[in-house]
Design goal:
single chain; alpha/beta; SH3 type barrels; Rossmann fold; N-(1-d-carboxylethyl)-l-norvaline Dehydrogenase, domain 2; 5-stranded antiparallel beta sheet; 24 helices; 15 strands; 46% helix; elongated
């Protein structure tokens, strides 16, 4: 461990502050308890869900072999001038057992390391089949959770600290620590129930409710009268306040980590009986701890099977596209970006006889198009030199700007006279204005052509084109737009097409989340999702898109037609656009959070219908 000298520890003394790392042996001091030998470790999954203060470390305690969050100012290295004083054998038997345990660790650390690795290992990544099991487990444990809250409510203000340890460790409480809710001497999940008659022979500080109760008794013994009644009311109020204040303090200690000691004994003392202690049952706590890793894996699951990348089929032809009479333009069209949408568009342009020059960051994706007759260039600037009209279709606004303003980008060719640039990426109006201004400064012409539709609609030539900017470029691209779209709209100035496209995406995103939540509710009722979709098809609410997405949700088939990450990107752009206008969009904001959470679950590259996974749980 490294040292930063002349830094202040707790108590205001100028001394050394140690920076602790995993596997460092230490002394850990909890409030009200004797310093205890321990080790800095990575926190177990159960402990990650516990509230804690800043500047805390996860400590593994020897002897009781459990874990807790401890503030750094209550930690000291195991070796030091203080070791002799802290390791005195005139301590409880549990402390001596802890010292023997750490001595064994020095001789052979294998056993302890295995236990720590088992408790603090990697997350348990749930599979798709585990979702129903986890959900059913949560439902079946509702009664157990209510019992747990009732047991710990009086003593801990409803806060139950998560502690991981050996359920077989059941050392007695130290006399000096008997009044605390947690002690390093006790086992992590002890279930020993203390009889009411077996009172520990220790000194206790009278609680506020005890003195108040005495006042109530004295007041009730006086003659009945107005003053006596008032005293009784005041005393009763003090008793309730004292009890609530004591419970709140204990709950605050449990939430902050001070009470999350190596062993767990929660006092659920009744306000009417000072000896009415209740302890949490071992099997109840074990069941909650046992399902916690799965619950965490459900909400924090970075490992999800990625959808297979579908190779472009250059030989397939859409019947709709084959029926159209398209006369290709004599101009050369450049295309930057061969992603899911771009590759489909380029394939259709080549099929209808257009001369195409392509570029892509991953050069391997260009090979099928070379075989189909397209030319490939090394940089975007090379494509601009070879083409008359340049299309760009990339994943986000940053990528779009990089292709224009970046190294070897479009504007590296200083004179764009007789060149036209068409931005087909989904971008915000500000980005479109910036790109348009840059193109115009180099004597070029600019058109934003936002594409609305899915990958399948692109393959069928059924997209909708929303254009804005230079009208002459719009006319020159007529044969291309007729190839890939069923309708085209020219909306005027630069930025208008971006705004309309993002507004349409807002409607789509909100509708998908509504559909997903409705089907998730039907699933909880065990109603057939296919029946819901069939009935929905007969109503006036039906739409081809929602029907298709609903069938994908019912089958669990999230093969990407429009990636979920793209939908979340569009919602983010919408919210940024609304923020500039101080326009409130609470439903869109919540929808965006749902998509963000679904991305966090690992479904970023799946279809946007995968939001159903998030809605189910």
């Amino acid at each position: 461990m490294s040292k930063n000298k002349k830094l202040s520890l707790s108590g205001g003394d100028t001394t050394e502050k140690f920076i602790y790392k995993p596997k460092d042996l230490i002394w850990a001091k909890m409030k009200g308890f004797t310093p205890w030998p321990g080790m800095i470790v990575e926190p177990p999954l159960d402990l990650l869900t516990q509230q804690r203060r800043a500047n805390t470390k996860c400590v593994f305690f020897f002897g009781s072999r459990n874990f807790a969050w401890i503030e750094e100012n209550n930690i000291k290295p195991f070796e030091g001038p203080w070791k002799e004083e802290l390791a005195k054998v005139s301590k409880p038997a549990a402390f001596r057992h802890a010292m023997n345990d750490i001595d064994k660790y020095f001789e052979d650390p294998t056993e302890v390391d295995e236990q720590i690795n088992e408790s603090c290992g990697g997350a348990n990544h749930a599979t798709e089949a585990d979702f129903d099991k986890i959900r059913d487990g949560l439902d079946s444990d509702e009664n157990a959770t209510e019992l747990l809250d009732t047991s710990a409510g009086d003593g801990n203000n409803g806060v139950v600290p998560h502690v991981v340890g050996s359920p077989h460790e059941s050392d007695a409480l130290d006399a000096n620590n008997a009044d605390s809710s947690v002690s390093p001497n006790a086992g992590a999940a002890s279930s020993t129930t203390t009889p009411a008659s077996a009172k520990p022979q220790v000194k206790r500080t009278p609680k506020a409710k005890s003195s108040a109760a005495v006042s109530v008794t004295k007041s009730s013994g006086k003659a009945a009268g107005t003053k006596s009644a008032q005293k009784r009311r005041i005393s009763s109020h003090q008793a309730v306040s004292g009890s609530a204040g004591s419970s709140a303090k204990r709950g605050k200690r449990a939430a902050s980590g001070d009470a999350a000691a190596p062993g767990l004994h929660l006092d659920g003392a009744s306000s009417s009986s000072p000896t009415g202690k209740r302890r949490i049952e071992t099997d109840l706590l074990a069941s909650l701890s046992k399902r916690a890793p799965n619950a965490i894996a459900l909400l924090d699951r970075p490992v999800v099977t990625r959808p297979e990348t579908q190779a472009i089929d250059m030989n397939s032809r859409s019947n709709t596209l084959a029926d159209r009479e398209i006369v290709p333009s004599d101009q050369t069209f450049g295309f930057l970006g061969l992603g899911m949408m771009g590759s489909t568009i380029v394939k259709d342009l080549i099929y209808t006889g257009h001369k195409v020059v392509v570029w892509n960051r991953t050069i391997d994706k260009c090979q099928p198009f070379v075989e189909a007759g397209a030319d490939v260039k090394d940089t975007p600037m090379d494509v601009v030199e070879a083409a008359d009209v340049i299309f760009c279709c990339v994943s986000d606004p940053k990528g779009a700007k990089d292709l224009v303003f970046g190294n070897c980008g479009v504007l590296q060719l200083k004179d764009l006279r007789n060149k036209a640039y068409v931005e087909m990426s989904t971008i915000d109006p500000e980005t479109s204005l910036d790109i348009g201004e840059g193109i115009k400064q180099c004597n070029g012409r600019y058109l934003e052509a936002q594409i609305h539709g899915s990958r399948q609609e692109a393959a069928d030539g059924m997209l909708i084109i929303l254009a804005g900017g230079d009208r002459s470029v719009f006319e020159e691209c007529h044969s291309c737009f007729k190839t890939i779209a069923k309708n085209t709209f020219f909306l005027g100035n630069i930025g208008n097409a971006c705004k309309v496209n993002l507004i349409l995406q807002t409607i789509l995103g909100v509708s998908l989340v509504g559909l997903a939540e409705a089907l998730a509710l039907a699933d909880r009722f065990s109603i057939s999702l296919n029946d819901i979709i069939d009935i929905f098809d007969l109503t006036s609410m039906k739409s081809p898109l929602l029907l298709a997405k609903g069938k994908e949700m019912a089958k669990g088939d999230f093969n990407p037609q429009q990636p979920l990450s793209h939908m979340q990107r569009d919602l983010r752009l919408v919210l940024n656009m609304a923020e500039n206008l101080d326009q409130s969009m609470p439903v869109t904001s919540i929808t965006n959070e749902v998509f963000k959470h679904t991305k966090r679950l690992g479904y970023s590259e799946h279809d946007s219908s995968a939001v159903f996974v998030r809605s189910r749980f």
